Amino acid sequence: MTQHVAVLYGGISAEREVSLSSGRQCIAALREAGFEVTPIEVGQDLTAVIHALTHPRPDAVFNALHGRFGEDGCIQGVLDWLGLPYTHSGLRASALAMDKHAAKAVFRQAGLPVAEHCLVTRDALEAADPLPLPYVVKPVNEGSSVGVHIVQKGDNRRAEIARDWRYGDHAMAESYIPGRELTVGVMGDRALAVTDIIADAGAFYDYESKYADGGSRHVLPAQIHADTYAKALDIALRAHQALGCRGASRADLRYDEETDRLVLLEVNTQPGLTPTSLLPEQAAHCGIPFPALCAWMVKEARHGT
């Protein structure tokens, strides 16, 4: 059994605070599971991170980073270079999943249901609606609903959203799918459960709903038809496999009850591990306590694709 685990947390993305919370939870859980743990809070100085990872070298790295540079293949490439086994997906799957446009191409090729979408420049978004209303505007490579806007009929915020855009040269516009927000955690070759997420703090499952106390309610297992439940599990597992993910992932879906339509939104290769996060809740529902979940992730740690 791996004894010495370094936990990377923090980072320099818009999701730094989420990662700090995930990291603290994982450090405590891994120690409870019997590991020697070295916390490494990641900041701007990559040289310092590499030094901490090599003096001394751990047996494995627990990657608790979220967002850009932490789950988009960047840190995975560094860890591959160092020859250190690490938790969650490798470089290629991480990069694919983080690039929502590329991921949708993979999902389409695999025959998975996705929403109509297009990439749009800030100027084009300011000038005209890229899709029929309503639609969603989101960054191509951020997580945790950072920068997500729903543009409804009669909404006059489109030009303002475009002018204030700070997530790169392009945004992704995606047809809005009405209905329920579902999520499915995957561990290896097993889809865990389906959670129905009811956001209380806002109109949709935004950053505040995800991480604020009382920001959302999780109905687990989701109260949906057994066939739909099984289909959601299947979509999540197939998406995990299509991207080439390893370890744990979490698929987010929308379910339109009126049309009985399930749509895959995205796959998160670094699911949150905070006190309000969904993957640990689903694992516990399946009889896997949080320390055991973290220990399993370390056991599955690899390097390379």
Secondary structure layout:
Elements: E1 4-10, H1 16-32, E2 36-42, H2 46-54, E3 60-63, H3 74-82, H4 91-98, H5 100-109, E4 117-121, H6 122-127, E5 135-139, E6 149-151, H7 158-163, E7 170-175, E8 180-187, E9 190-199, H8 207-211, E10 216-219, H9 226-243, E11 248-256, E12 261-268, H10 278-285, H11 290-299
Parallel strand pairs: 1-2, 1-3
Antiparallel strand pairs: 4-7, 5-6, 5-7, 8-9, 8-11, 9-10, 11-12
Helix pairs in contact: 1-11
In short:
Helices cover 35% and strands 25% of the residues. With 305 residues, it is of the alpha+beta class. The protein folds into three domains: 4-96, Rossmann fold; 100-113 and 178-288, D-amino Acid Aminotransferase, Chain A, domain 1, CATH 3.30.470.20; 117-175, ATP-grasp fold, A domain (Dna Ligase, domain 1, 2-Layer Sandwich).
Q: What does this molecule look like?
A:
The chain has 305 residues and is an alpha+beta fold. The chain folds into three domains: 4-96, Rossmann fold, CATH 3.40.50; 100-113 and 178-288, D-amino Acid Aminotransferase, Chain A, domain 1 (2-Layer Sandwich), CATH 3.30.470.20; 117-175, 2-Layer Sandwich (Dna Ligase, domain 1), CATH 3.30.1490.20. Helices cover 35% and strands 25% of the residues. It has eleven helices and twelve strands. It has a five-stranded antiparallel β-sheet. It has a four-stranded antiparallel β-sheet with strand order 4-7-5-6. Helix 1 (16-32) crosses helix 11. It is globular, with a radius of gyration of 19 Å.
